Amino acid sequence: MATTDLAVHGSTGQFAGSRIVNDFSLQVATVNGSGSQSANTVLLRTIFQMGVPVSGKNLFPSNIAGLPTWYTIRANKNGYIARKKEVDFLIAMNPETAIEDVKVLAAGAAVLYDEPLKLNAVRTDLTFYPVPFDKITATVCPEAKLRKLVKNMVYVGVAAHLLGLDMTEVEKAIRRQFGKKQKAADLNVNAVKAGYDYAVATIEKMDPYWISRMDENRGKIIIDGNSAAALGCMFAGVTVVTWYPITPSSSLVESLIDYMKKYRIGADGKATFAIVQAEDELAAVGMVIGAAWAGARSMTATSGPGISLMSEFTGLGYYAEVPAVIWDIQRVGPSTGLPTRTAQGDLLSTAFLSHGDTKHVLLFPASPEECFTMAQDAFNLAELAQTPVFVLSDLDLGMNNWMADQFQYPTTPIKRGKVLSKEDRDRLGGFARYKDVDGDGIGYRTIPGNSHPASAYFTRGSGHNEKGQYSERPDDYRNNMDRLNRKFEYLRTLVPKPQLVVNGTSEVGVIAYGTSHYATGESRDQLRKEHRVELDYLRVRAYPFSAEVHEFIAKHDRVYIIDQNRDAQMFQLLKLDLAAEQTEKLRSVRNYDGLPIDARSITSEIASQEGK
Amino acid sequence: MGTIPSSTGTPKTNNIGLTVVEYKGGKTTLCAGCGHNAISERIIDAMFEMGVDPTRVAKLSGIGCSSKSPAYFMSRSPSFNSVHGRMPSIATGTLLANQGLVAIGVSGDGDTASIGIGQFVHLMRRNIPMIYIIEDNGVYGLTKGQFSATADLGSKLKTGVINDLPPIDTCALAIQLGATFVGRSFSGDKKQLTAMLKAAIAHKGTVMLDVISPCVTFNDHEGSTKSYKFTKDHEEPLHDITFVPSFEEIDVEYAEGETVDVTMHDGSRLRLHKLEEDYDPTNKIEALRRVAQAHEDGEILTGVFYINTKQPTFMELLNMTEEPLATLPEERVRPSREVLAECMERLK
Ligand SMILES: Cc1ncc(C[n+]2csc(CCOP(=O)(O)OP(=O)(O)O)c2C)c(N)n1
Ligand code: SF4
Ligand SMILES: [Mg+2]
Asked: Is B251 exposed, middle or buried (0-12, 13-18, 19+ CB in 10 A)?
């Protein structure tokens, strides 16, 4: 058939009989700002609705419109949802990148493309499906200026036929996407149908990739990590939020604004919160610290460049012992780096942010569920320990859509920590703000507005004694620093415990954190199957490390540490924490190309270090 | 004075039953004669006379000799001596958490006009309801006498170095940016400064007071334009200021046309008695013109330059519930199970 350039030579139907079902990755290459996002979401949702585990990752440029963007969907029956290195099915819509996109494909991949691009001339070992998108679009979209957008839905229709997507699910996904905008939904449904009908009539399926209904997603939701974090913060009872826009953290606060406007306005029409767009990140974190000092649950969200600006204030938070919750949705640094690419590059800078002997609590969410729960953990910890807490998400988690279990309503009440009321103050007699009354290193505080005449204390970032009075005495300084250390040690027992995924099966272990979790799990299976290397696995969820992390390392001969940064930052942080004989066991696996880490890279690195 | 009923033997109490001792701070560690100490005294007087409950006050500051001074007044009020140039964000956060507090921020000319100019600008622009005082000595006292950005052209350091950059006029800036009560005073002008501070307490919105406050150690010599002598010689008050709190009777009557009365939010009155010229402090453009004119004439103009009692504050724009956000109970800040279920349903 003229319209199907099957470019596999010789054998007829190389793929006949070898269907690959629910196990491939599909990439859509488009131009930023062309409106392909809705079409891609419809594809993702359709597969999700068909019960097949799926993930979608948007690889976009730091640009508003005109530069290339790629959206990768991975469907996998085993639940492997990390980025897959190879693309199996390409939808090539961007003339700028099409040839390069096709060149890098592995042999046997399928390419659905806009006919004028003539991509079938580029290679002979791929399956090509040229489609006259403009012609098809014109038939369903009389309005010329909408065609650029509608064209995207046409590829959804063609792909639906080729991949065996259920059209009723596609339509459901579209209607969901457009909500009340009935006319837009109809237009898009028609475009998908036109693409589908065209494909049915003219294209012969020659590639092996299929989606077939499963039942793995029952009760699940799809959400991006930033929206999950926003929900978590709202249910954690946040009252003061400050921010300065920066990718990839802006959507966290924007989502929070939407939720709070909807659910945190009282019956009197008044807000139980304040959200302030500050003039910069210095002011954003300053407002957070000011608000927390005055007793509010307060937070800000930022990314690397903002973290750098927050340095001095977070040191004040540590030393003057003021709570703060700081979300760092990590992106690629140094400096402006790659603003729209992902990394785990801020561990060391946040752990020790600010001068002097400063150290901070870090949490590492790996999923939307954990963005939700760790939001609550972060506020509780910050207020219990009276110290800044950083939540280190990343662009991959924050901005991409993920399947998740439905979030559970918080089971514990909000914990405000050691705050003395007027009555407490009456009862206690004396009050020394920084006295270690309970032996956990955490003093009692009062907040402004306490009407007890002797409840006030002087908060300062300069040297102070137990009463908060200015002091340069060597013993006062040292005692205070030692108490802060006791508190940090105590925090090891308070922070979320690591997830011990597998233990006791091997003398070799692997430690990962955050979004490396998915590729790590998949790589363990690859290593077992392909190299007969068995790895025990511990996922770190917080710093300072709890005892379980030390125990895991102690139990193993070698432990691989997976980092999405150049300098092996988790590896280094662990080294600082471990006894010398333990540090020798650590091995490092790093990924730092701005793309979410994939299993294959981990597997080859570990296999080679294991001498396989 | 009518506010302070006194009977011989017992100390005077104010209208909330406190004595002035209850407004005192710790013993100052600043240099004897430092203008900042005099300002602390005036703050004590004003707060006492206005009957402000010290436990409802929050003192905020940055870093510098000036920023240390909250330790030397009102020990009953919580205080946050933060980082250099960033008091505005601390103050803003404090008021977001508890808009019922009376916030008083103390900064220096270095703390405000150099490192802190960015946050200063935005605090003014937001009309955050607080009193912002610059204790202005034209130098960095704490780091031993370098020029600050408010030093006048031609002013001389002890070392003989001459300032050759123009000063930033923080009052002109504040007026232009949106502060709603802006004035300049002198630490040595007890009567004027106390009256201005009392009016400041009554005002709802950003009060920005630039108070010339000589640094006796580094900038009080011949050739300095921020010395006691120079300031006394060149001070040019716009008007004579009396402040009449809502709970007091006006006791001095001036002839018609001699005074401008401004009624404050709480019903108290700021009475500006004309000295040499007619001056309307509610006219923003005129205020800017007059401040600029003073620079041309080489005079240190003092008084209330601008006042606007109509502008909503930032806290009002945020539409927050009246109770402090800081202490809202769990049931008001954690939505119900049904809300979570509804959110989950939408994401399915
Ligand atoms: C980030 C930072 N840089 C520099 C300093 C050093 N420093 C402390 S006070 C000060 C200047 C204070 O001048 P000003 O605000 O005018 O206060 P004054 O001492 O004159 O009252 C400087 C530069 C600091 N504390 N922090
Ligand atoms: S150095 Fe100057 S500003 Fe600092 S306390 Fe002494 S006189 Fe005051
Ligand atoms: Mg100064």
From this structure: exposed
